[in-house]
Structures are given as structure tokens and as C-alpha cells.
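Checklist before submission:
- one chain only
- standard amino acids only
- sequence pasted in full

Submission:
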Amino acid sequence: MYLYIYDTFLSDKKYYSLLNKIENRLADLEIKGKVCRLNILKNMKEVVEDGIKQGVDTVVAVGNDLTFSKIVNIIAELNVTLGIIPVTKSKIAEILGVPEGEAACDTLAQRLIQKIDLGKISNQYFIDSATIDDTNVILSFDKFQISSIAKNALVTICNLGFLADNQSIYKERLSVPTDGLLEAVIAPIKATLFSKKIKQQSIFPFTKIKLDSKAEPVTVTIDQQAVFKTPLEVTVAPKKLKVVVGSKRLF
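Returned file contents:
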């Protein structure tokens, strides 16, 4: 049984036509299910838990990367499969091999399932990345410690791939979410008059890393939403999430 969770921004009239096409295609493929349209009065966690009690075994995020990553943390400990129907450009969907719009319904119907790793900080899981807002961070893993990072560098903990400040997808993939590892990526930025360019990245695979700071606590943001302060520990949760992927996935 499927549960389709529509994000709040889809209440905008400009999405009505696309949502109608998606719903018609789901009906054609005979994979319609319960639909929940989120609003300020509906708690996503309660919606998912109620659905599971009613027999839901597949939760589908209809929206964007934020929609998907919010649901990841809710179902990481539950025995359900997660799918995505992106209605806007989606980095996560592209990596998973899921096309945008109604074409995603066909991928969902094929039900090709892959178990992938997640990152974890405290009791919070993340699927994509943890971004670190200050190069005064100290990275400690295995027998190594990194404490001298250029001020103009981006520092990211990656599971799916390197996420820059413009949310673009780098064609050179840095992370594979099935290898039981996360990667600490340090990417110096070369600024020009009109743009910023990433120079050669340094990549450090790990299963557990400690983040600290030289002075004031450093902010760490996971999947563009949950915020933490150093000191903290990041670990990998291998094969933690079952996701629907497409044949053109990037891993």
C-alpha cells in the first residue's frame, strides 16, 4: 500500500495541472494509494506513523529534496520503502535515477529497490550531506586530525554527493551511498570577478568522525534543515534506508 505525501508548496495553483497528470498516471499504473496534503496543522511524522498502522509499506515524497529528506529521518527506523516524485529539479532524484514529474510514476511502478547508507548525528539521520559553515572546524577520524583548512574552502560531509552553496550537482561524483562510508570533502574556492570555482577537492572516507572547533562552536546543517553545534560526532548507518531507484541512477 502506498502513501503519497504532498508538500505544502504544492497547494500553489501552478502545480495543479502537473499533479493531475501525476495522479492520472498513478491510476493508469494501478499504484494509487492514500494521499496526504501537508499543511501547518498536519504533522508529517504522525501522518507516516498513522499510514503504517493502516498497512502502508511504501511512502512517496511528492515535492522536492527537502520533502524527501524530512521523510528520511522519520522512516529510517521503520521497515518501509521510500520513493520520490519530484515536481521541481531535484539533486536527490537525479542521483537515484528518478525523472521529474509524471515520468517518475513509471520508475515507481517498476519498484527497483536499493538499500542505501545514511549519515547520522545524534538521533538525526541525513541522506545527502552535512555542511559546515566555518573552516575553524577540527576533523578527527581514525588516527588523523585535520585542523588547518583554508578560509575560502567549503567543508562538507557527503553521503550522496558534494553539495555546493548553489545546490548544483557536480558531475564528478564523490560519494557512493552503498559503500558503508561517508566522505569529508574539503574544496578550496577560487574567486574571480564574476564567479567562484571549485579547485581540486580533498576527500577523506570514514565511518565515524568527530567535529570540534578551535574557539566558538561551529554550525553544522544536515540536508539543509536540522542544525547542530560542535562538538559532535557523525557516523554512517550502512544500508539503513530502502529507496526506489531508477535504472539510470548514478551509483
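Reviewer check: The first strand starts at residue 2 and ends at 6.
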